[in-house]
UniProtKB/TrEMBL annotation:
It catalyses: GTP + succinate + CoA = succinyl-CoA + GDP + phosphate; succinate + ATP + CoA = succinyl-CoA + ADP + phosphate. Gene3D superfamilies: NAD(P)-binding Rossmann-like Domain, Succinyl-CoA synthetase domains. NCBIfam families: PRK05678.1, sucCoAalpha. GO terms for biological process: tricarboxylic acid cycle. Succinyl-CoA synthetase functions in the citric acid cycle (TCA), coupling the hydrolysis of succinyl-CoA to the synthesis of either ATP or GTP and thus represents the only step of substrate-level phosphorylation in the TCA. The alpha subunit of the enzyme binds the substrates coenzyme A and phosphate, while succinate binding and nucleotide specificity is provided by the beta subunit. Its EC number is 6.2.1.5. This is Succinate--CoA ligase [ADP-forming] subunit alpha. GO terms for cellular component: succinate-CoA ligase complex (ADP-forming). The keyword Ligase applies. It is an enzyme of class 6 (ligase). It comes from Chitinophaga oryziterrae. CoA binds at T17, G18, T19, E20, K43, I96, T97, E98. Pfam families: CoA_binding, Ligase_CoA.
Length: 293
């Protein structure tokens, strides 16, 4: 079992024929992901990467039975692409696009309320279930199958954690890059909850960063409901207050937004917090050994 995506997921690509869509769809197909087609308005009826192209998501879903969509659409149109996918009944929408206006995302997030669609992102690397399906931009060769789930705001640190987990003799069940924007579809707590409920995930790595309260909310949930060990890391420990760092959501707005404050809360909630990302993999291996002993 896995969470969100697996070898049976039927994936369409919104922005299929563009440069980014083409490059990453090719990588996804090579990984073994079941990419069943794509959407580029005005190019319906044509073929791309030997897959059918449709004018709308609705057409694509009717023809292919797709249940997952990945979005490579420019920022000005990406919120509409999210809403179009939700309207067509896509169960999992993964939005890679960076730089979507906050106002647009508020509209898209409200549109999703009460619908069956789950949004991952925007401004995220996507989701990968190791050796089954890659729906995103992550380097697939790093991810070897195993029982460690990863939830991360940072794309780069997702790959770093996966690499360390493998080098520590473990492997990855599913890695979820939730995105670094202020408004995202699936917050840290929900992603952790998915992995906590997955019988094939034995431990969870939770990577956060300065800004917002998502890590604290996840930590409090883990304290009350956690059944598996969690290793945590917060990026941005040296970031000056008030300055946005990297991600649009990575800004220290108050005392609770700092890396130190988040790490303190996480530790108090029983999470094994590491001060350096270099220690993520080995700490997870050590914690699992201690649990089994």
């Amino acid at each position: 079992m896995s969470v969100l995506v697996n070898k049976h997921s039927k994936v369409i690509v919104q922005g299929f024929t563009g440069t980014e869509g083409t490059f990453h769809a090719t990588q996804m197909i090579e990984y073994g992901t079941q990419v069943v087609g794509g959407v580029t308005p005005g190019k319906g009826g044509s073929k791309h990467l030997d897959r059918p192209v449709f004018n709308t998501v609705e057409d694509a879903v009717k023809a292919t039975g797709a249940n997952v969509s990945i979005i490579f659409v420019p920022p000005g149109f990406a919120a509409d692409a999210i809403m179009e996918a939700a309207e067509a009944g896509i169960e999992l929408i993964i939005c890679i696009t960076e730089g979507i206006p906050v106002q647009d995302m508020i509209r898209a997030k409200n549109f999703l309320v009460g619908r069956k669609s789950r949004l991952i992102g925007p401004n995220c690397p996507g989701v990968i279930t190791a050796e089954e399906a890659k729906v995103g931009i992550m380097p697939g060769f790093i991810f070897k199958k195993g029982n460690i789930g990863i939830v991360s705001k940072s794309g780069t640190l997702t790959y770093e954690a996966a690499d360390q987990v493998v080098k520590a003799g473990l492997g990855v069940s599913t890695a979820i890059g939730i995105g670094g924007d202020p408004i995202i579809g699936t917050p840290t707590k929900e992603a952790v909850e998915l992995l906590m409920n997955d019988p094939e995930t034995a431990g969870i790595i939770m990577i956060g960063e300065i800004g917002g309260s998502m890590e604290a909310e996840a930590a409090l949930w883990i304290k009350e409901n956690g059944t598996k060990p969690v290793v945590g890391f917060i990026a941005g420990q040296t970031a000056p207050p008030g300055r946005r760092m990297g991600h649009a959501g990575a800004i220290v707005g108050g005392a609770d937004d700092t890396a130190a404050a988040k790490m303190k809360i996480m530790a108090e909630c029983g999470i094994h917090v590491v001060a350096s990302p270099a220690n993520i993999g080995q700490t997870m291996a050590d914690v699992l050994k201690a649990v089994k002993a």
